[in-house]
Design goal:
By secondary structure, the chain is an all-alpha fold. The protein has seven helices and no strands. The chain has one domain.
């Protein structure tokens, strides 16, 4: 049986993984600070995340990543790199906090849970930026970028302070995005395929 502490650790990891889908380095930096201050216990072999060198590197990378997304058109190009990076960051964040979990179960949670959660939020992020670029020519992309990194910070902080609340928030957002995306993709198709009513009235002679 998995202990309550291990279940909380899973929630922490999945919450951080979800944040990694919005910004790759920000949740890892929050994790490192949380580990260094003792707020979040780190699993064996992952103490390096809280080391001074790692915090400096992650903090620098976080600042560069946030700034780069405000450069027009570079933000769309970064999504190509950020997608696989987000999956890796999500798995790292999850693996680093899983304590007292059987190895096979742990890596299933890391790969499927952590990688999958990061992939879902990253996909929603890419979709939002693509729509912004298509409809506004990229003019609204800075607003999208701001929402993303603020959202990543909020989810990451909730993950380490209120992990269950963070997980529920992320799952709610994912359901909302999936449903909205489904309406956008399939609603139009259904409308396009709907037969047009033809009036039976004929002009009188």
């Amino acid at each position: 049986m998995i202990s309550a502490e291990s279940l909380i650790a899973v929630a922490v990891g999945l919450g951080l993984a979800a944040a990694a889908g919005m910004r790759v380095f920000l949740p890892l930096f929050v994790l490192g600070v949380s580990g260094a201050t003792g707020v979040v216990p780190l699993a064996d072999g992952w103490s390096w995340v809280a080391s001074p060198a790692a915090l400096i590197g992650l903090g620098t990378a976080m600042a560069l990543e946030i700034g780069a997304y405000y450069i027009p058109w570079l933000d769309n190009a970064l999504d190509v790199i950020a997608t696989p990076a987000a999956l890796i960051a999500g798995m790292i964040a999850t693996a680093s906090v899983l304590i007292d979990v059987p190895p096979m179960l742990k890596w299933a949670i890391v790969i499927i849970g952590g990688g999958g959660m990061a992939g879902l939020t990253q996909g929603a992020s890419v979709l939002a930026r693509a729509k912004s670029s298509a409809f506004t020519g990229g003019l609204a992309n800075p607003a999208v970028s701001t929402v993303e990194w603020v959202g990543a910070l909020l989810v990451a902080l909730l993950a380490v302070l209120l992990p269950i609340a963070a997980l529920l928030l992320v799952l709610t957002l994912i359901v909302f995005v999936v449903r909205r995306t489904g309406r956008l993709l399939f609603g139009k198709q259904a409308h396009a395929g709907k037969p047009v009513a033809v009036s039976s009235d004929t002009p009188s002679s």
